[in-house]
Design goal:
The protein is an alpha/beta fold and 384 residues long. It is 43% helix and 16% strand. The strands form three sheets. The chain has a seven-stranded parallel sheet with strand order 3-2-1-6-7-8-9, sandwiched between helices. α2 (48-51) links the parallel β2 (34-40) and β3. The radius of gyration is 21 Å and the shape is globular. The model has no long low-confidence stretch (mean pLDDT 91).
């Protein structure tokens, strides 16, 4: 089957959605599918021999992300024409989310060309603090996303949060809940006695617990809460892995270390060197970093909303309510849960192994790719 995958960025963007798309393509290629990946040229495309698939980088303007931290690349007219041609060459189209111009264009061309289209919907609403942004996204979900989901041949949700948000849509067929997989050959626990060695290699403070954040440095990830936590707890070494316009380096705190160029095995080393993951985010589906952290054996302190992405994983998370009106109080509540996580993790290796085993059994990439392929093939067969 010739499958067209469309997303707004390539995996070099290093956000969860694009990393998921890249790994899913690799698994589909292993299942003997011919895949083309179309995304904006805001970040470099992968080498085709790495994925085993063809990559098409489209000209796009990426000003909203550079200035506001909102990922919304706008394709050129030539890029839209290229999307049309790629859709016509494909047997089926798989969109990674829907509220992006390139995904919208691919959806419309797929409908006109009578190509089966499946939408993998990652997020519902992002509750921006800015009232205008929040209102615009709500309107866009109503005017654009819900009609797309209703007219798609198939829909897969990446979390229970997103599925609940769009539960009122009249779908053509019952949507599926498909969690992403985790590369457990890269992300796995290490023996506790190896942590000092890894911390020395990474330049982390050796004699303090290490709290880790992984993700883009943007509003919805809770950077304003993390900055308060880092100031409240100078006794904790705070490691930040990611990039964005809200850079923790600007806080000028001696207990904060920022890593901007880690991925794959190198980011796994940072997980393994840390004591826990902290994620005060909102408006997400199911962040891949939670699965990666658990696979590396770490306890996870996150928002109550994020903890609801998968009911099965909630037993391994420490949820904290987000109070946007009182961020200082929220930061204090997170710090209290951090202390609880560090105290409760006294059995070290046994707790880490339990988390790893859960992830290994619950989140399997090969099973996820097979489920996607079966869904697409069944839709294509019914169409014929």
């Amino acid at each position: 089957m010739k499958l067209l995958m469309v997303s707004h960025y390539f995996e070099s963007h290093r956000s969860g959605l694009e990393l998921i798309a890249g790994r899913l393509i690799q698994e589909l290629v292993r299942l003997n599918q011919e895949v083309v990946w179309v995304a904006s040229n805001a970040t470099p495309p992968p080498f085709d021999n790495k994925l085993g698939a063809r990559s098409v980088a489209l000209n796009a303007v990426n000003i909203t992300e550079r200035t506001l931290g909102i990922p919304f690349p706008i394709p050129s007219l030539g890029a839209i024409g290229r999307i049309r041609r790629e859709v016509q060459r494909a047997d089926a189209v798989l969109l990674q989310d829907s509220l992006y111009p390139m995904c919208i264009a691919a959806f419309l061309f797929a409908r006109l060309s009578r190509r089966p289209v499946v939408i993998a919907q990652h997020v519902g609403i992002v509750p921006y603090n800015n009232t205008l942004f929040r209102t615009l996204m709500g309107l866009a979900n109503t005017i654009v996303v819900r009609p797309m989901l209703a007219r798609a041949d198939g829909v897969a949700f990446f979390s229970e949060i997103t599925a609940r948000y769009f539960s009122g849509v009249s779908f053509r067929r019952t949507p599926k809940l498909m969690f992403t997989g985790v590369d457990t050959e890269t992300f796995f626990p290490i023996r506790p006695e190896r942590k000092p060695e890894l911390r020395a290699r990474l330049g982390l403070i050796p004699d303090r617990p290490v709290a880790l954040f992984v993700g883009r440095f943007v509003e919805k990830k809770g950077l304003h809460i993390l900055s308060r936590m880092a100031r409240l707890r100078p006794d904790i070494a705070w490691a930040f892995a990611g990039w964005g316009h809200l850079n923790p380096r600007d806080w000028n705190l001696p207990n904060v270390t920022v890593f901007s160029d880690l991925s794959g095995p190198s980011i796994a080393t940072l997980y393994q060197a840390s004591d826990l993951l902290v994620l005060p985010s909102k408006g997400e589906g199911f962040p891949l970093v939670i699965q990666e952290a658990l696979a590396c054996g770490l306890p996870v302190v996150c928002s109550v909303e994020t903890a609801g992405a998968d009911a099965a994983v909630s037993a391994f998370l420490l949820p904290v309510p987000l109070d946007e009106q009182r961020p200082d109080r929220t930061a204090l509540a997170f710090c209290q849960e951090i202390d609880r996580a560090l105290a409760d993790d006294g059995d070290g290796a046994r707790s880490s192994e339990r988390r790893f085993q859960f992830v290994s059994q619950r989140y399997c990439w090969r099973a996820t790719a097979t489920e996607y392929l079966e869904l697409i093939q069944s839709i294509a067969a019914s169409g014929r």
